[in-house]
Amino acid sequence: MADAGRKDFSTKLGEKVTPDSQKTAYDKAKEGLTDAYDKAASAVTPEDGKSFSQQVGDSVQRGHDDAQKTWGESAQEALENSKKAVSEAAEYVSNVVTGAKEGAESEAKK
C-alpha cells in the first residue's frame, strides 16, 4: 500500500515491465509526471512519516538513482582517461618522429 498521493510498488513495477512500444503518449506523459511527483514527495516526506513499504520503495529507488549516477560518472571518468591516453600516445609518437628526423638530419650533416 502506498502513502497518500504516492505510487505503490505494484504500479511502479507494472510501468517498468510494460514496453514503451505498448504505451500511449498519454501513458508516457502520465508516468513522467507521476514519477517526478513521487520523487519529490519522497524527498520532502520524513522517513518516520512513511509507511514501511514506502520506505523500502524509496530506498530501492535511491539505490537505483545512485547506481545510475555512479555509472554516468564512471563513464565520464573513463572517457577522460581515454582522452589523456590518446594525447600521451600522440605526444610520444610526435617525439619519436621528431627525434628520428633530428637524428637523420645530424647524420646527413656529417
Question: Overview of this structure, please?
Answer:
This protein is mainly α and 110 residues long. It has a domain of 40 residues. It is 79% helix and 0% strand. It is built from three helices and no strands. It is elongated. The N and C termini lie far apart (90 Å). The mean pLDDT is 85.
Which helices and strands, and how do they pair?
Layout: H1 9-17, H2 25-44, H3 52-109
Provide a short characterization of the protein structure:
With 110 residues, the protein is an all-alpha fold. The chain has three helices and no strands. The chain has a domain at 70-109.
* Biggest sheet details: none
Rg over CA atoms, rounded to whole Å, is 28 Å
Mean pLDDT score: 85
- Find the count of extended strands (DSSP E, 2+ residues): 0
What is the structural class? Answer: mainly alpha
H and E order: HHH
Strand percent estimate: under 5%
Helical segment tally? 3
Termini separation: 90 Å
Low-confidence stretches: none
DSSP helix fraction: over 70%
Task: Assign an overall shape.
Answer: elongated
Tags for this model:
single chain; 110 residues; mainly alpha; 3 helices; HSP9_HSP12; 12 kDa heat shock protein
